[in-house]
Specification:
Layout: E1 2-4, H1 8-16, E2 22-24, H2 38-56, E3 62-70, E4 75-76, H3 82-92, E5 96-107, E6 110-122, H4 127-136, E7 156-162, H5 174-188, E8 194-199, E9 204-211, E10 214-221, H6 224-229, H7 244-249, H8 256-273, H9 285-290
Parallel strand pairs: 1-2, 1-3
Antiparallel strand pairs: 3-4, 3-5, 5-6, 6-7, 8-9, 9-10
Amino acid sequence: MILCSSSPTRAKLLKKAGMDFVQKKCDFDEESINVDSPYEFVTIASFGKFKKCLECFKNEDIIAADTVVTDGKEILRKAKSREDARKILLKQSGNKIRIVTAMWIQYNNRVFARLDETVYEFNKFESKDLEEYLNSGEWTNKAGACMVEGFCKKYIKNVKHYFYKNTETGDSVLIEDIVKRVNGFIDNCGGEFKIVDFSFALPYSYVVVEKDGRKSLGVAMTLIEEYRGCNGKKNIINSEIKTINDFINMATEFDISKRYLGLATINAISQYFIQLSKENFNKDIADIILEHKDIKKS
């Protein structure tokens, strides 16, 4: 396996996971990307690196990734100078940031993609600690000049992980929590949901479910970058995947076609229980949900 990155942090993570790999790099110009969304930026950047690595290391297993930090207002890029690092870090002091990572993997001629996000809330940084960190130069080549495993660690007030499980803290995986709750809900709601139709497609994948003679449609947006990443190949859904629970559980899969179909299935089930009147069409869906007797605003 080739880790297409010069990042010592990523190399450390792979070593910790016991993976056998070599670390190499292919240059990709991130400055050519002109988008404001951190999610769009990190997807384009990681896919750009991945394509370059495919050109450099043909017929090899490859991992390529990119990370961005955002304060919710702008993307906090790598600091170009000590003073730039100070300005970027002060935007994070006492505030929330989102660290978003997109990863592409080619393994045994199959391509996988994943996007993870962690939201950190920091206490205010102490001036002395900040100066020492700036003097150390450890912020160099770090997205947002941020080191949550180093300088920022002791200032973490709260943390929320999305799409994966933090093995150190045991924090819950958001998508796995949703899957567990949906499975439990349909097992106890009476009657039986059936899969009527489904398709992995662009720009949306869809699943149609049926229960007690009523049908509902659920969709999940299919990213063109991920579709291209799997070379547009059709993946055959295993014949063992038959029940509604099987489809729901696919939401946690690494394979993008299965993951999107799993998310679309969860969406279809939620659509089944949302019954809109004519008056509801002019309301925000969040307000409609909060009208349910068992749901309270937190």
